[in-house]
Design a protein that fits this description.
- With 321 residues, this protein is α/β, with parallel strands linked by helices.
- The protein is globular.
Length: 321
């Protein structure tokens, strides 16, 4: 079986459902995760064996990035610009793995090996095209692909130097380079990337048929992984998916963190229950007035802005002093 490592550098507050994220990592016992942080996870969370934790200050990582690339991330969120070089920033941890990659933690994993099979891994250089979950084949030509610069293309150097505007190099630029080089990208992983400005669970990217992309909820269990549940042709349908990404969506915890199964509905985690057509329709639809939801979005936007400013002050770099 091909070995896989996901790398997640993180400084700041984890989502309130982070233990559920860890539980879904544990469910994928043949895949490893590396969390790089300065937060003592063992004091708050039950960290599974396949999730390794490396305690590093953000300032030390800034210095390491500056030594390697002549410029450092100013704040933790800026590390998104460096995702394609995690195999260099955390080189010692990638040794021996067939694939390395990056991911977000505002999501819940399903059974990844059902979709990222050895057949897929043997056939492709890169798995997925989105920043919330990407894998690279751990070989030199793939690892060095980010260095290529083509006329009219966004570049890694332009991204970290902030000379090319909103770059999204980890999601757009690197994929265009792979296409130009003729390197293969696997794009057939079914995932739910939820729209942030929609109370209901509506998925982006047209991965699912339009008529099934409404009135949907999700179910997670240690036995079956993650299912998308929706109404189609007058009946309840269930479909296994790789993960659901909440995309900064506030989620309320209405379950214990130790639950072996639960439902994911807008916008909370609730205890598992028997489902009927009526209950799926009831659980999935907008139950609050649009103006109220917009006020909540505004409130959360302001709250997140304040958090961002406080984080920036906390991690204000001194490497240039």
């Amino acid at each position: 079986m091909k070995s896989i490592l996901f790398i997640l550098p993180y400084w700041g507050n984890f989502p309130n459902y982070f233990q559920l994220w860890l539980n879904s990592c544990k469910f994928n016992e043949t895949i490893d995760w590396l969390i790089v942080t300065d937060i003592n996870l063992s004091q708050r969370y039950r960290v599974p064996k396949n999730v390794k934790v490396e305690y590093v200050s953000f300032n030390s990582l800034q210095k390491k990035a500056k030594d390697k690339y002549s410029i450092a991330p100013l704040y933790p969120y800026d590390l998104c610009k460096y995702r394609v070089v995690y195999h260099e920033l955390f080189e010692e941890f990638c040794i021996g793995y067939d694939f390395w990659g990056f991911c977000d933690c505002d999501l819940i994993w399903g059974n990844l090996r059902s979709f990222i099979t050895d057949e897929v891994l043997n056939s492709y250089d890169k798995i997925s095209w989105r920043g919330h979950m990407t894998l690279f084949k751990n070989i030199d030509r793939v690892n060095q692909a980010y260095k290529n610069e083509f006329e009219g293309f966004k570049t890694f150097r332009g991204c970290i130097n902030n000379t090319e505007g909103i770059n999204l190099f980890d999601e757009v630029g690197i994929n265009k380079i792979f296409d130009k080089l003729g390197y293969s990208i696997y794009k057939k992983i079914p995932f739910a990337d939820l729209k942030i400005r929609q109370f209901n669970f509506i998925c982006l990217h047209n991965i699912f048929p339009e008529n099934t992309n409404i009135n949907q909820i999700f179910h997670w269990s240690v036995e079956g992984g993650l299912e998308r549940i929706y109404i189609d042709h007058g009946g309840i349908k269930r479909e296994q998916i790789a993960y659901v990404h909440f995309l900064k969506r506030p989620m309320k915890m209405c379950i214990k963190e130790t639950e072996n199964s639960f439902l994911i509905v807008p916008n909370k985690f609730i205890p598992d229950q028997e489902l009927s057509i009526n209950s799926v329709l009831c659980l999935s639809k907008d139950k609050i007035y649009w103006n109220y939801w917009m006020s909540r979005l505004t409130f959360n936007f302001i709250k997140n802005k304040i958090k961002c400013l406080l984080t920036q002050q906390k991690y204000k770099p001194d490497i240039y002093n």
